[in-house]
Amino acid sequence: MAQHSIVELICRKRDGAELSPDELAWVIKSFTSGEIEKYQMSSLLMAIVFRGMTDGELGAWTEAMLHSGEVVDLSDVALPKIDKHSTGGVGDKVSIPLAPIVAACGVAVPMMSGRGLGHTGGTLDKLESIPGFFTNIPPEDFAKRLLEHQLVLAGQTETLVPADKAIYALRDASGTVPSIPLIASSIMSKKLAEDLDGLVLDVKVGSGAFMKTVDEATRLAETMAAIGRSHGTATVAHLTAMDQPLGTRIGNTLEIEESIEILRGGGPSDMIEITRTLAVEMLLLAGVARDADAAISRVRHVVNTGQALDKFRDVVAAQGGDPAIVDGTRHLAAAPHKHTLHARSDGYVSRCDALSIGMAVVRLGGGRVKANDVIDPTVGVVLAAKVGDAVTGGDELATIHYSTAEALASALPLLERAWSISPDPIEVPPLLISRIGR
Q: What is the pTM (predicted TM-score) of this model?
C-alpha cells in the first residue's frame, strides 16, 4: 500500500475530489494504527459531511473498515443468522425486546450494537444499566455463546472493526454524526463483520432522528441495502417516524423497564407495533415462517407463553447481569428526584418534540456531550401525553427523573418547549412510513 499525506487528502476531499480506494484504505489503516491523529480524522470526516462520497468511495471506505480487524466466524452456527439495526432515535429501545423474541422463534441473533450518539440513546448503555451486564465479548467467544443461547447482545471489541469503533466515538464528539455515507458505512461494516444471512434496518426519520426528511432517510436506507446486497446479505429497511419519542420512557434504566414490559406482553402501542413489524421481517428473512401471518402468530406465541422473556433472562444471566431484574424481584436503580411537567391549557397534544426531549435527557446526564462522559443511567423522562392525546390544563405531560437541581434547571427549558397544545383534535401520523425491500 502506497504512503500518502493525510493533509493532502483532507484538502482534496474538502475541495470536492474523489479519493481512490488505495487512499481510503490507507486512511483507515493509518488511523487505526495511530499514525493519523484524531484531529486530522475529524477534519476529514467534516469534509465528508460537506462533500459526501461517491459510490466508489463508499464501497472502498466500508470495505476498509470491515477488514480493519477481525471478522466473526459463525460458520458453525446452523440456524439462520439475522440481525437488526436502528439508525437511532429518542426512546428507541426496540432492539432489547426484539432480539429475544426473534431468538425464541428459532433464529440466531448476533446483535452487535452501539452507544448513544448525540441526543439518541445507545443499546449498550441501556443494557449496561442492568447490574453486572457486560457487552464486551471477544470474537472467539461470540460463536460459542450464539450456539448456546441463539442470542448475543454485544458491542464492538477492540479487534472487531476497530476503525469503526474509533470513528464512531469521534463522530459523536466532532459534530459529524449526520452524514449518509458515514452512517451507512458505520452500520454496514459492523453488520457485515457478523457473517449474517440477513439484516433488517430501522431507519428513523423526523426531528429526533439524524435523517430529518423522508428523502434523506430513503437515500440512507437504499445506500445501506445496496451495500448489503453487494456483499450477498439480504437486507430490508423500514422507514419509521421519529418526530416524537418512541414509547413512553426515555433514559437507560427507564427504557430497560419498558423493554421488559413489552416482553411480558404489555407496553405502549407504538413499541408493540414496531417490535412486531421488525420481528416479522426477521422471521421471513430467516425462512422460519411461510408468510407474515404465520410470523405474527409465532411472535405472539413466544411472548404469550413467556418464552421470549425467558430468553432475555437467560442472556442477561449469561452476560453477567442480574436476572432478578427481569423477574421483577429486584428493581433497577432510580433517580433520587422527580419533577412533574403540566399542561398549560386544554386541548390536544399537537407536538411532543423528540429532539428537545432527547437533548434534555442528555442535559440531565443521561447522554454524552464528550466521548468519555460518564452516563447517569437513572435519569430520564416518562411521558404521560403524546401527539393526539386530549389534555386539560394542569394535566401531567411528563415526569422528569433527575439527580441534581443544576441538571434539572438545564433540561427544563427544553422540556417546557417540547409540547404544543392545539384546540382541535389531532390526527396521529403513522409510525411506519415505507419499506425498502431486499
A: 0.89
Which residues are designated catalytic?
A: 85, 164, 171, 186, 190
Task: Give alpha helix (H) positions in 305-353.
Answer: 307-318, 323-327
| Cβ(209)–Cβ(88) below 8 Å | yes
Q: How many CB atoms lie within 10 A of CB 371?
A: 15
> What are the structural domains, with CATH classification, of the chain?
6-52 (1.20.970.10), 82-329 (3.40.1030.10), 337-422 (3.90.1170.30)
| Cα–Cα distance, 264 to 257 (Å, whole number) | 11
Q: How far apart are CA 279 and CA 97, in angstroms?
A: 10
Alpha helix ranges (H) inside 345-404:
354-361
Q: What is the mean pLDDT of each run of 10 residues along the chain (438 residues)?
A: 90 97 96 94 96 92 90 90 92 97 97 78 92 90 94 85 86 84 90 90 93 93 90 93 97 97 97 97 97 97 98 97 94 96 97 96 88 88 98 98 98 97 95 90
**Residues near 257 by Cβ (< 8 Å), separated by ≥ 6?**
249, 332
DSSP state of 5: -
C-alpha pair distances (Å), 294 with each of 84, 238, 380, 436? 20, 20, 37, 21
